[in-house]
Write a structure and sequence with these properties.
Elements: E1 8-14, H1 21-30, H2 50-61, H3 67-83, E2 86-93, H4 103-124, E3 127-135, H5 144-153, E4 158-164, H6 176-184, E5 188-193, H7 199-209, E6 213-216, H8 224-233, E7 236-239, H9 241-246, H10 258-263, E8 267-270, H11 282-293, H12 297-310, H13 315-321
Parallel strand pairs: 1-2, 2-3, 3-4, 4-5, 5-6, 6-7, 7-8
Helix pairs in contact: 3-4, 5-6
This protein binds hypoxanthine (HPA) and zinc ion.
Amino acid sequence: MSMRDFPKLELHLHLEGAAPPAFIRGLAREKSVDISGVFGADGGYAFRDFGHFLQVYEAATSVLTTPEDYARLVTAVLEESAANGVIYSEVFLSPDFCGGSDVAAWREYLHAMQEAAARAEARDGIVLRGVVTCIRHFGPERARAPALCAAETAGAFITGFGIAGDETAGRPRDFTWSFDLAREAGLRLTAHAGEWGGPVSVREAIADLGVERIGHGVRAAEDPRLVDQLAETGVVLEVCPGSNVALGLYPSWQRHPIQTLRERGVRVTVSTDDPPFFRTSMVREYEELARAFGWEAGDFLEIARNALDAAFCDADTKGRLA
Ligand code: HPA
Ligand code: ZN
């Protein structure tokens, strides 16, 4: 069986961060916008470090200005995911970038994205669900509007709420208003933590926001008591090893803590985060994990089961995927 053929479920993917560079370049050309600073000599996205990554990400995203643009983006992203053997994808959607977190505008973007997702599902069988995110470095006040958008559109497609952006900005408890609103609307919760912040950041996301999954969370490995807590409570980590290596969190795949976390009983999953930015794909993640840790079919099956268990979709959808 080739790596492509393993059925994969991806739980941590930023929609704009999955945009192929050629797609963004094409839109910029259509709209006569100059975003040449976004790209390097090889035509791919170029950035120096995580702070610069966030700037380049927002600059690339600036060419996406209409519901139709986002529908085309969903089509391009799901085509690529399906080609990597992904059968289920949970994607972070940011109302801040889709009509400035105005609820009426957000509904139009969402409608266009859902239509594109339905076409992709009919063609390739891939199932998409959306996790609305607020953006941490925009601050807690600005996080209220995306939470309202999420609460207003919670349902079979918008199944979760989360927080992305610069983890070093503010504290999780600053965002409780937004997370409480999302929880009351029936949404499942996740937060980026334990990537640029250490174990404390993970502890606080769990204690103060009540999340059941952590985006990244890998720095929990630095605190044995926290590792035990994660294993005992079943909090699931959305691990993105290629992203962590590309951003220099770990010097190599071999030094990535995903295998240690697994061995200590933590439920881990594997995702790509922002694949073209980090020169990765789900197939590449699987290949590198096989090379670094000797993972085989049984290991990948366990990862897929963890993801199916932890997915925010309803039981009927899980039944179709199982
Ligand atoms: N991490 C945090 N915030 C983000 C990312 C990411 O990889 N992509 C877009 N926003
Ligand atoms: Zn992320």
